[in-house]
Write a structure and sequence with these properties.
- The chain is built from nine helices and ten strands.
- By secondary structure, it is α/β, with parallel strands linked by helices.
- The chain has one domain: Spore Coat Polysaccharide Biosynthesis Protein SpsA, Chain A.
- The strands form two sheets. An eight-stranded mixed beta sheet has the order 2-1-3-8-5-9-7-6, with helices on both faces. The protein has a two-stranded antiparallel sheet with strand order 4-10.
- Helix 3 links the parallel strand 1 and strand 2.
- It is globular.
- This is Glycosyl transferase family 25 domain-containing protein.
- InterPro entries: Glyco_trans_25.
Length: 282
Amino acid sequence: MSDLPGMLAELGIARADAARLAAALRAPATSPTAVAPDQTPPPPPPPSLPLHALGRVPAAVYINLASRTDRRRAMEAALPAVGLGHAERFEALTTAPPSCAASHVALWRRCAASEAPLLILEDDVSFGTPEVDASCRALMRAVEGASELPAERLVVLFLGAEATVRESAPSLRAKVWIWAARATSVTSELLEVTWAWQTHAYLLWPAAARVLLAGLPVDAPVDVYLSRHFHEGKLCGLVARPHLAKQHDPYRGGDVEHSSLQDRARMGLSNRLAAETAAGLR
């Protein structure tokens, strides 16, 4: 190896290039990943998945009619103030209850396909704390930490709702999530829901979304459809108390009449019409 440049030159490599190549071959090997003791290793690259897929930030969508630009402006101002500036607008179809249901069903489909929980908001929501995003993240970690298998997360978690709750005797599966939430920094307590009115703010997991989709058609107001699943034990409904979010003036001035005030005959929702509407939501 003493005449390495000459050997390389015989291979047709120019003498000057051969000398440089020989010097490189004789140099001691160094590890490209070695870090000197007084140096700090570079930070890891950012994750390739969106933050909500890592359980850090909840994906959020708010439903808004094209005609309600006033509410859109209000939401665009309110959401960043509670840490939900990333929330996406979803354009509602019409004010009729079947179309209101269709908007929610479309978002259930999105949730089921995304494999990540989704925070669904309506544009008449008002927030009771500036820590909505932080509270949602803590509650997400609590639910997912207490049920490691995604298929077990049959949960609809209302940030607020008028609801009938099991104050003293929650079901066994609800207890797991209720106790897990108590270990977080969230000041609100979770209670199990047997029936809930209002759908202005709820966190939905994919497993629960699939159950809701399997039960289609929607033949009632959305909150009634959800509540049937709680009442029948197909899903677990939870509500935060004190509420993290409320519906602004729920019994007056809304675009869709509140389900507890509806009269099916007066609203013209005959069984035939309900069936036709439901068929369109499959």
